[in-house]
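User: Can you help me understand a structure? I only have the sequence.
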Amino acid sequence: MWVASQWKDYEVIDTGSGEKLERWGKYILLRPDPQVIWSSEKTDRRWKELNAHYHRSAKGGGEWEFFDLPDQWSISYGDLTFQLKPFSFKHTGLFPEQAVNWDWFSDLIRPASANREVKVLNLFAYTGGATLAAAKAGAHVTHVDASKGMVQWAKENAASSGLADAPVRWLVDDCVKFAEREIRRGNHYDAIIMDPPSYGRGPKGEIWKIEDSIYPFIELCANLLVEKPLFVLINSYTTGLQPAVLSYMLQKAVVSRFGGSVEAGEIGLPVSANGLILPCGASGRYVGPGR
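Assistant: Let's start by predicting it. Here is the structure, written out as tokens:
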């Protein structure tokens, strides 16, 4: 398992009974996590000192209960600073476990960008964590997300991180349609990052269902890679897409065409109370001959 263990502003304090107790900067949040099927003795006093608690509804969804939490606050990871806000379905605008992937691809981008322009395409780019990490490492990034609000949020994070003037193209677009147009335009990228949702809709109502759409999309995006790609990263929070599945898809769609190698595994976060690692999805990592 790849573990995001370098955080200072974020911490999983404890887990138990379907919930995780987290520290986001100086604020304590309690949020549901369906994988936490064990119990906790809840000896840490912060179980009773919450700033906010997200309650999941038995009918689906849920709602926040706020005690003392601002509308917006920030945390940092290294030189990157992220603006956080509690919003629908328990999210805060950041998936901290992805930091382990930011570190991985940053180590590939830095030496490559010393000798050439490295172009990275970030699809389903959300609030820009991967975009900012890639830009900080020296890449020219194209950031694509179907939500105008998410792209604006990513721009705020860029400004907070001192990257407002970094070489980033911010695009509100359906990722499939964008990829198809880029192929027609003859554009290519050294690396591709994608963090597809399990289910979603594009700005014009386009339906995305990951089980049906992900492999054709990977095959499509392979047409956007340069002759000697640097890397491809695919993230999944969908239970059915295990690491082996991500590996097989990258082998068939990318390695068979460009060479290189693939690793896939779970990603996770350390739990301070007991030293366990909380699993947080899976990632497939392709490293190509452009390294």
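Now, to help you interpret it: The longest strand covers residues 277-287. The helical segments are 99-113, 129-136, 148-160, 175-185, 210-222, 243-258. Let me know which part you'd like to focus on.
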